[in-house]
Amino acid sequence: AEGGENPDWGFDYNVFADAAVWLHDRGKFTASMLKEEPAQKVWAETVRVLGNAFGGSITHEVPDALLAALNNNAFIFSGFKTYHSLQELGLKLTDEKGEIKPFNTFLNDGQQVNAKYNQNYLYAEYNHAVHTSQMAVKWQDFEEDEDRYNLQYRTAGDEKVRQEHAALDGTTLPPSDPFWDEYLPPNGWNCRCNVVQVLKNKYPLSDSTQAINAGALATAEPKQQIFRFNAGKTLELFPPKHPYYKAPAEVKDSIIEYAKNTDQFTATTIPEAESQFRDILGVKCDLSGFKKKDIAQVKDIFDCVH
C-alpha cells in the first residue's frame, strides 16, 4: 500500500485491538486459541472485507457454484491469515528477557503487526480478490465459447507495467492452450494485466512453448510462483500455494471446527467433502465419482441437503 492509495474497505481495526487485549490477558497465543471469539471476530472481519472485494467487482449474473467456491476460498484464506497475524502479534508479547511487556508497550508494538496484515497486506489481497474474481468470471465465458475465439494477454500499457509482464503483452493463444493453465492474470500482487477474446484471423498465433517460457520468467521468483494457477479452472480466489497455508494441522482443524459451527462448507478435496457431509450434516455419502474440479458442484449438493 503506497502513497495512501488504500481503498476505503472499512476494516474494523477495533477487532484487532480487542484481540490484542485478549492476548495480553492470556499471555500467549496458540493454534487452539483460533477457536475463541476474539480470534474469530478478526477472521470474520477479514472474510467480510474480502467478500465485499469480489462481491462488488462482479457486475453481472454468474453461476451460484462459482460464487460459492470463491466465498469458500475467501473463508479458508481468512482463517489462515488470522492465525498468522495473531501468531506474530503473540511474538510481540514478551521482551528480550522473556517477560510480558507492559500493556501500552505491547499495544504500540502490536500496531506494526496491524499495519502489516490489515493495511499493507490487505491492500494487495483486496486488489487481488477483485481482479481474480473478475478473471474467474471471464474464464467461465471463455469456456462456453470454447476455441471459437483466441485469447490475448494485455498489460495496462503504462509506465507502471512490470518488465516481466510486458514480455507477455500480445500473447495470443486459444483457450485450450496450456499457457492459460498457469498464466491467466493476475500474475503477481497488484497485477493489472487482462485477457480478452479476439477474432482468430485478426492476430497471429503465438508460439505456445515460447509463451510458456516467458510466463515462467515472469513468475520466476519463489514468491511469484504461487500465482501460477487459473482461478477460472480451480475456482480459487487466492493462490493455492500461498504461504498462509503453511500452518500446524491444528489450525486447519480449527477452521473445520468453525465451519461446523457456522455450517460453512470449506472442503477443497473430495475426501474432505465426504467428511464435512458426515460431520456437519450427519450424511454418509460416497463422492469418489467427483474430481477436485467438481468441488463447486459438491458445494451445491451440500447446500441442497442442508
* Lateral arrangement of strands in the main beta sheet: 2-1-3
- State the order of secondary-structure elements, H for helix, E for strand: HHHHEHEHEHHHHH
Q: How many H/I helices?
A: 11
Provide the residue-averaged pLDDT.
89
**Helix-strand category:** mainly alpha
Largest sheet report? 3 strands, antiparallel
- Rg over CA atoms, rounded to whole Å, is 21 Å
Number of strands: 3
How many angstroms separate the termini? 41 Å
Structure description:
This protein has helices at 13-26, 37-57, 64-91, 103-145, 163-166, 179-183, 208-218, 231-234, 249-262, 270-281, 295-305; strands at residues 150-154, 172-173, 194-198. Helix content is 55%, strand content 4%. The longest helix has 43 residues, at 103-145. The protein is built from eleven helices and three strands, in the order ααααβαβαβααααα. α3 crosses α11. The chain starts with 12 loop residues before the first helix and ends with a helix. A three-stranded antiparallel sheet has the order 2-1-3, with no helix packed on it. The relative contact order is 0.13. The chain is globular and about 70 Å long. The protein is mainly α.
